[in-house]
Structure formats: structure tokens, C-alpha cells
Predict the 3D structure of the following.
Amino acid sequence: MKTHIITIFPESFKSYLNSSIIWRAKEKWLFKTIFYKLNDFSEKPFQHIDDKAYGMHWQVLSPKPLMKAIEYVFKTVWKKIPVIYMSPKWILLTQEKSEYFSNKLWNEFIIICGHYEWIDQRIIDIYVDYEISIWKYIISSWELASIVLLDSLIRQIPWVLWNKKSLKEDSFWIFFNRQKEHPVYTRPEKFMWRSVPKILLSWNHKKIENWKINNLW
């Protein structure tokens, strides 16, 4: 999976992309990110990439730098690839949607990270294939939302996780009929006067599986 990320703050991704599961995917050459600093595509003094919105009081990312950045990626990869805009107003990212996008976008795609308020609607109309929201709230930097999306997609790439079964037993997966995961326990067997349910110590796999299904949240 290769992701082209258009952003004002590429440095904000550094810590998360170089740790844990995403780092493991990169080490195995299963995932790659290429960053494009939006300011580099600005023709304005001091590389400004925003302007005041018509009829409103806030700043909006200007369409021309975004257009140039997107077209530059198309030219670099010699083809048009799907474009995602992280937006608070459209498709809510669920586990089911994440699985869909993991299959749909597994090869190569662009993520536009907005800032300030929005991006110019004409960029959405002309270039954006999917507007994805991580939930019903506003955040200042959509780089954070992009990391959430990437994490949800990358962990589904084959061979990224050490144990394939752990993916199937996650909350909201089809294995559990899209419900929240059952309670989980580890050693010690007794802790603060509370014990692990006896059935989980039984080694009876059929009963354990039934217990999991009957104890979904």
C-alpha cells in the first residue's frame, strides 16, 4: 500500500508512522508514505496557501496549490489514483467502511489533509473520490484524522499483524456480527479478589467460543 499525503505539516506524522504496527508494515515493505508539503506548491509571497472564505469569517485552503499538488502526484505516478479528503461532514469511518476501503484502496491513493476550516469546494467537485470523517466533531488538524484512517487500513494488510486471528476477533468485525468485543483476561488468574471466568481456563475451545459470542458488549 502506497499513500501520497498532501499536508501543511508533514512532520506531524513522524512519531506515529515510526512506531508500533505502522513501523512494522514499513519495515516489511508493505506500506509506504510519500509527503508533499502544500506550501511548496504556492505562488504567493511567503508560500501562503489559504485565503478568506466568501461570505464567512474563516480561512480556507486555496484551490490552486491543492490542484497543483494533486496534478503533480498524478504526473509522478503516471496515472490518476483515488483521492481522499479527510472531512468532518461526509462518510463516517466504521470498521465495515475501513474493510471496504482497505480492499478498494489497497494499492495507491492520495490523502488531502485540510486545515483551518475546509478546502475550496471546487477541489472536492473535481478531484475528490471519497470524503471520510472519523466522527461527528471538528478538529483543527486533519493530519490526526489521516493517521486514524491509515492505522485502520494498514493493520488489515496481510502479514502486518503477528497473529491473523487477532484481527478477526477485534471489535466490530463480521466474526462478532459487528458488535463490541467480549471481555478479555490475562495472568494472574486472581487479581484484586476477582478471578478469570472458569470457562476460559477449561481448554474447551467450543465452549470458549460460545462464551465469547454470548458475552459481546
User: Anything to note?
Assistant: The first helix runs from residue 14 to 17.
